[in-house]
Write a structure and sequence with these properties.
- The protein is an alpha+beta fold and 848 residues long.
- The protein is built from 14 helices and 51 strands.
- It is globular and about 75 Å long.
Length: 848
C-alpha cells in the first residue's frame, strides 16, 4: 500500500467541525439523464430496494494513526515467526507509546479519552477531538494523520421468508472443519437453524459485552437485528463445519429523524479486526481467525491510505484473510466511483454479486383508464409473490389530500413512502381491495409495499421502475404482488385518474419465465477502481435471492454484495481446510487467480466466478492478487510494478507470463516482464518486475488480466487496470464562501468557511475525491504564513470549518487583511496529477 509521507513543516489546525458531507453520490434518482449508461440507470433502480442510508446521531470522532510500528508491522518485518510472548510484549510497547503521547498532551491541558485503542492491525486510536487537540496531534511528529470516522452499513437488502437459491459453491470432501471465521456484523441468533453448535458467544464491540447477541430495536422490540444471523447462515451453507466467531460491530443507533437503524462506524470496524486477529485478547495473534468476513460497507470510501485499509493489511500480515463486499452502488467502469470500504482495501478479498436465478415471474397485464387501454403486455413481477389465479382490480393513485396532509392540492401525487398517504383525511383506506399505482421516485419500494399491504391494497403497481423481476424479496411485503408498469403507461394512467376517470387492471395468473440476467453480475453490484487504481471486485459469487437462516429459527432469502461475500468466505474456509499451509495472502491469490471468467470484464467481475475446486488445486500464488497502474497521463507514460510469484506445489514449475486486454476497441498497451520466465522449485518464490506503457495513450482507461502459466498447471489470472483520466481539467475545490469576511479572533464564535471539495465527472459515472486538502494562510502581498488546517480523504461534497483568527502556530493574528488559499491534492497526487486551488479573503479587526 502506498503511504503518504508526512510534511516536514509544523502546523496548527483550526478545524471546528465538518458541517456536512454529500453522501447521496450517484444515486439521486431513477430517471435517465443525458449521457448516462443503461447500466447506471439499472443500478440506480436498485436504490429503491436497498433504501436510504441513514445518518446516526453521534459526535465528531476521529481516528489518529501513529508512526510507530504496530504488532502486524513488526511481525511482517520479522525474519521468523515471533513467539506469543514477543507479540504480547510488542502489544504492550505500542500501548505504552500511546500512553506516553497522551500524558504529554495532558500536561499541556489537553485530555483525550480514547474510544478504541488499536495496537495489533495498526497503531492508533479513536476519540472525540476538539480543535485544539487536533491541532496538537496533527503537528506531532509521531502522528501520521487524523482521519474521519465514517458510517458503516450492512451491504444487503432486508430479506423475505420462504424458499431461496442455494449458493452453488462446494468442494468435494471438505466442509470447513477446523477453520475459524470471524464475522464482523450485527449480533447473531446462535439458536437459528443450521447455526446451532457452530457459532460461539463472540464479542459485542458496540456495547462492550462478551456476548454478540442479536439485539432488538429500542423503538420497536419486535424488530430484531438479523443481518449477522443471515450472513452466518450463508457461510455455513457453504462450509457446514466451519466455526463462526461473531464480532458485533453494527447495532441499533438513533438516526436524524429519531428512529433507530442498524449502522456502525469505521473505528468499531477496526476494533473488530483487532479482535479477529486476537480472539482471546491476550496480545498474541497465535489464535487469529483464518478468515474475517466483514459484510458491510463504507459507501464510496475507497481510500488506499485510510485507517480501515491499513487495518486490513495488518490483519493480513497476522494471518487473517479479510473478505468484504464491493458495495451495492453499481458500476463505475475503468474509473473511481462506486466501490466501498473495506472491500476497496488493497489486501481485502473484494466480492461482487452475481445473479444466478434461472427463472422469474411475469404476468399478462391490461391496464385501462375510462375504458381506454393504456397497457396490454407482459409485466415483470418485482416481488417473490405471484398474482394467483388472475384477478381484475380497480386502480387508484395517491392523489390529493390524505391523512398525512389534509391540505394537499387535489392534483398532487405522492410516492407512497408514508403510510398515512394511503388513507383519506378521515382515516379511511383509499386503496383497500384495489391496486395502487405509485411512481418509482427513488424512495424505498420496501416501505411502499409494506404500506400498501398495511392499508389493505390487493396489489402495488410501480411505474417507471428499471428493477428486474424478482428483485423485491422483502419480508412484510411478500403477501402483496408488486408489478412493474412502463413509465409512459403509468403517467398516462395517473393523468386519467387525476381527471376523475376510472382505472382498472387485469392480471393473469403469474408464470415463470427465463431470467435474462442469469449468469450476469447484478446491476447493483459495485465495480470499478479503488482510489489507488486497483480493480474491484476481485471476484464474484451468487448474491441474489439466496436461502439462509433468520432470527427466531425461521428462514429467509438474502440479496446484496454482502450475501456474495458470505458465500466466498465459506469457499475460503473450504480451501483453507484443504490447504492449511496457505498464508492469508496465498489464500486470497488462489481464490482470485483460479476464478472462472464470465466475459463481463474485470471491473465488473474481477477474475470471475469463485471456484473453490480450482483454488484448492492451484500450483501458483501471486502477490499482489490484483494490479493498479494509476493513470496514463500522456503518450510517454509508463509504469512498473513488482509481483512475487510463488510455487505452492510439490514439483518444479517453469512459469511464463502473458497479458490479455478486456476489449479490443481500447488503446493497446505493452507489457514486459523481467525475468520473462521463472524456474521455481517447490515452495520457492521470485520477484518479477512488470513494465507497462501506452504509446497511444489511454485517456478512457483500459483493463485486462495478466496470465501466469506453467506446464501441467492451471493458469493464474491477475486483474489489472489503467485508470481513465478525468473528462476535463479536474477542479477539486471551489465555491469558497465565508460567513463574515471581517471579524475579531474568537474560539467560541469563529467565522465559518464553506467550500466544495471533490467532483463528479460530467456523466455521473465516476467521482474524483480529495486525498489531502490544505488550508493555507497568505498575506495579500504573496507571503505564505503556513497551513492552518489539513483535511484528509474527502469525498465529493460541501464542507465547512471554523476560522478562529489564529496563525499556523496557534497565535492570534495581528489586525489586517489575509488570503485563505485552499489547496486540494487528488488521491493519486504522487503520480503527478496537479493540485487544485481556490481562495477567499478575510480581515482581522483591531483587537480590543
Amino acid at each position: 500500500m502506498r503511504m503518504r509521507r508526512r510534511p516536514e513543516f509544523a502546523r496548527a489546525l483550526t478545524l471546528a467541525a465538518i458541517a456536512s458531507v454529500a453522501t447521496a453520490l450517484l444515486l439521486a434518482g431513477t430517471v435517465q439523464g443525458a449521457g448516462e449508461s443503461a447500466g447506471r440507470v439499472a443500478a440506480r433502480a436498485w436504490h429503491s430496494v436497498f433504501g436510504d442510508r441513514t445518518k446516526p446521531v453521534q459526535g465528531e470522532r476521529m481516528i489518529v494513526v501513529l508512526s510507530s510500528p504496530s504488532v502486524a508491522e513488526r511481525v511482517a518485518s520479522s525474519p521468523t515467526r515471533p513467539s506469543a510472548a514477543e507479540e504480547r510484549q510488542w502489544t504492550k510497547d505500542v500501548e505504552g507509546l500511546q500512553r506516553t503521547l497522551l500524558a504529554a498532551l495532558r500536561q499541556r491541558g489537553i485530555v483525550i479519552e480514547r474510544k478504541f485503542v488499536f495496537t495489533r492491525v495498526l497503531d492508533g486510536f479513536s476519540a472525540e477531538l476538539d480543535a485544539r487537540a487536533v491541532a496538537e496531534l496533527d503537528r506531532n511528529p509521531i502522528v501520521v494523520g487524523i482521519y474521519p470516522v465514517r458510517n458503516v452499513y450492512p451491504a444487503e437488502t432486508r430479506s423475505a421468508p420462504g424458499p431461496g437459491l442455494d449458493p452453488g459453491v462446494a468442494l468435494a470432501g471438505f466442509d470447513g472443519r477446523g477453520v475459524q471465521i470471524a464475522l464482523l456484523d450485527t449480533g447473531v441468533d446462535r439458536s437459528a437453524g443450521t447455526l446451532r453448535g457452530r457459532v460461539s458467544h463472540g464479542f459485542d464491540l458496540v456495547s462492550d459485552d462478551r456476548l454478540a447477541e442479536a439485539d432488538a430495536n429500542p423503538g420497536d422490540p419486535g424488530d430484531v437485528e438479523s443481518h449477522g444471523t443471515r450472513m452466518a447462515g450463508l457461510v455455513l451453507r457453504v462450509a457446514k463445519r466451519a466455526h463462526i466467531l461473531p464480532l458485533r460491530v453494527l447495532g441499533w443507533q438513533q438516526v436524524e429523524d429519531g428512529r433507530y437503524a442498524v449502522v456502525g462506524s469505521g473505528d468499531t470496524l477496526i476494533a473488530g479486526l483487532e479482535r479477529a486477529v486476537d480472539p482471546n485478547g491476550d496480545g498474541s495473534s497465535r489464535d487469529a481467525a483464518d478468515v474475517a468476513l466483514a459484510p458491510l460497507v463504507e459507501p464510496f470510501a475507497a481510500f488506499a491510505d485510510s485507517p480501515e485499509s491499513r487495518a486490513v493489511t495488518g490483519a493480513t500480515e497476522l494471518g487473517t484473510l479479510v473478505v468484504a463486499p464491493s458495495g451495492n452502488d453499481g458500476d463505475a467502469g475503468v474509473g473511481f466511483g462506486s466501490v466501498a470500504a473495506p472491500g476497496s482495501a488493497a489486501d481485502s478479498l473484494s466480492v461482487g454479486a452475481l445473479d444466478t436465478r434461472r427463472e422469474v415471474l411475469q404476468t399478462e397485464t391490461k391496464l385501462t383508464v375510462d375504458g381506454r387501454t393504456v397497457l396490454d403486455e407482459p409485466a415483470r413481477i418485482l416481488g417473490l409473490v405471484g398474482t394467483g389465479p388472475g384477478v381484475t382490480l380497480g386502480v387508484t393513485g395517491l392523489l390529493g389530500p390524505s391523512l398525512a396532509d389534509p391540505a394537499r392540492p387535489p392534483e398532487a401525487e405522492v410516492g407512497g413512502a408514508e403510510l398515512a398517504d394511503f388513507f383519506d383525511p378521515h382515516g379511511i383506506s383509499r386503496v383497500a381491495g384495489r391496486a395502487v399505482l405509485v411512481p418509482a421516485d427513488g424512495t424505498s419500494l420496501v416501505q411502499k409495499a409494506e404500506n400498501a399491504k398495511a392499508a389493505g391494497a390487493a396489489a402495488l403497481l410501480v411505474y417507471g421502475s428499471e428493477l428486474p423481476a424478482g428483485a423485491l424479496d422483502l419480508a412484510r411485503a411478500a403477501a402483496v404482488p408488486v408489478v412493474a408498469v412502463p413509465g409512459d403507461a403509468g403517467r398516462e394512467a395517473v393523468d386519467g385518474l387525476r381527471a376523475g376517470d376510472q382505472g382498472q387492471i387485469s392480471l393473469t395468473a403469474s408464470t415463470k419465465v427465463g431470467n435474462a440476467g442469469a449468469g450476469v453480475v447484478a446491476p447493483f453490484s459495485s465495480g470499478g477502481l479503488a482510489f489507488d487504481g486497483r480493480v474491484r471486485p476481485d471476484l464474484v459469487a451468487a448474491g441474489v435471492g439466496l436461502a439462509t437462516d433468520d432470527v427466531g429459527g425461521s428462514y429467509a432469502t438474502s440479496t446484496g454484495s454482502s450475501a456474495a461475500a458470505a458465500v466466498v468466505a465459506g469457499a475460503a474456509a473450504l480451501v483453507k481446510e484443504g490447504r492449511p499451509d496457505l498464508s492469508a495472502r496465498d489464500l486470497r491469490s488462489v481464490l482470485v487467480g483460479s476464478a472462472s471468467p464470465l466475459g463481463g470484464g474485470v471491473t465488473r467481475e474481477g477474475s470471475g466466478l469463485v471456484d473453490p475446486k480450482a483454488a484448492a488445486a492451484a500450483d501458483l500464488a501471486i502477490d499482489p492478487a490484483t494490479l493498479a497502474f494509476g493513470r496514463a497521463s500522456d503518450t510517454k507514460w509508463s509504469e512498473t510494478r513488482a509481483i512475487t510469484v510463488k510455487n505452492i506445489s510439490k514439483r518444479v514449475l517453469d512459469v511464463g507470463l502473458s497479458f490479455v486486454q478486456d476489449r479490443s476497441d481500447r488503446p493497446a498497451v505493452t507489457f514486459t516482464a523481467q525475468p520473462a520466465r521463472l524456474n521455481l522449485g517447490p515452495g520457492a518464490s521470485a520477484v518479477v518486475t512488470l513494465a507497462i506503457s501506452a504509446p497511444g495513450g489511454v485517456s478512457d482507461g483500459v483493463s485486462g488480466v495478466l496470465l501466469a502459466t506453467a506446464s501441467g498447471a492451471q493458469p493464474i489470472r491477475i486483474p489489472w487496470a489503467v485508470a481513465k483520466l478525468p473528462s476535463k481539467t479536474v477542479d477539486l475545490v471551489g465555491a469558497v464562501g465565508i460567513s463574515n469576511w471581517e471579524f475579531a479572533p474568537s474560539a467560541s464564535a469563529p467565522a465559518v468557511v464553506a467550500f466544495r471539495a471533490g467532483r463528479l465527472d460530467g456523466h455521473g459515472d465516476a467521482l474524483e475525491p480529495v486525498g489531502v486538502l490544505d488550508v493555507e494562510l497568505w498575506t495579500t502581498d504573496g507571503k505564505r504564513l503556513g497551513v492552518i488546517a489539513r483535511l484528509r480523504d474527502l469525498l465529493p461534497g460541501r464542507y465547512a470549518f471554523g476560522l478562529t483568527g489564529r496563525d499556523a502556530n496557534g497565535k492570534i493574528l495581528p489586525a489586517g487583511t489575509y488570503v485563505l488559499r485552499l489547496r486540494a491534492q487528488p488521491v493519486d497526487s504522487e503520480d503527478g496529477t496537479p493540485p487544485s486551488t481556490a481562495q477567499t479573503v478575510f480581515r482581522i479587526k483591531e483587537h480590543e
